[in-house]
């Protein structure tokens, strides 16, 4: 369905002339956004949103800390001075978490897996170290061991 260019130009010109005779929009006072005396207006600022992900992550960390305190309490002893301070810390954290403790308990296994994957020895090395370990060997350079430490120097015989 090829239309010659001349016909296309005629159609475009006829559409334009119907919408805006002469091809120009008439300027009225309503169409002028500002004049020379009005300074340009800035775009309105958006209202800052609270960072709920950061807060939820912090609540999850508090929940894990409370679990660790509960696990360490039998070893310390409830009646000792340290045990009483641990109980006070548990009370304070319980007051902060409140009814959200069940919700954070649901997220703990996932958070623990995420923390374990970030450990280099658990296979969660950074993308840079993964790329370096998978790169081909360069002649004359000693390879880096998988743990990321320095290789021992060869001993003279």
Highlighted features:
157 residues, mainly alpha
Could you give the count of β-strands?
A: 0
Q: Tell me about the biggest sheet? A: none
Total of DSSP H or I helical runs spanning 4+ residues: 5
Give the fraction of residues assigned to helices. Answer: 40-55%
Distance between the termini: 86 Å
Averaged pLDDT: 75
Fraction in beta strands: under 5%
Residue runs with pLDDT of under 50 for 5 or more positions: none
| Structural shape | flat
Order of helices and strands: HHHHH
- Alpha-beta classification: mainly alpha
Question: Your description of this structure?
Answer:
- The chain is mostly helical.
- It has a domain at 52-117.
- Helices cover 52% and strands 0% of the residues.
- The protein is built from five helices and no strands.
- It has helices at 5-19, 52-76, 81-97, 101-117, 127-134.
- α2 packs antiparallel against α3 and α2 (52-76) packs across α4 (101-117).
- The radius of gyration is 35 Å and the shape is flat.
- The mean pLDDT is 75.
């Amino acid at each position: 369905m090829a239309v010659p260019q001349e016909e296309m130009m005629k159609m475009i010109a006829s559409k334009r002339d119907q919408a805006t005779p002469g091809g120009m929009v008439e300027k009225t006072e309503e169409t002028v956004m500002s004049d020379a005396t009005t300074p340009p207006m800035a775009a309105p600022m958006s209202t800052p949103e609270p960072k709920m992900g950061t807060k939820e992550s912090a609540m999850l960390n508090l929940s894990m800390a409370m679990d660790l305190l509960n696990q360490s309490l039998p070893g310390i002893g409830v009646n000792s001075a340290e045990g009483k301070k641990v109980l006070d810390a548990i009370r304070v954290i319980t007051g902060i978490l409140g009814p959200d403790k069940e919700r954070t308990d649901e997220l703990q296994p996932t958070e623990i897996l995420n923390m374990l994957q970030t450990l280099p020895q658990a296979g969660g090395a950074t993308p840079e170290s993964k790329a370096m370990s998978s790169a081909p060997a360069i002649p004359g350079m000693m390879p880096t061991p998988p743990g990321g430490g320095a290789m021992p120097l060869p001993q003279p015989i």
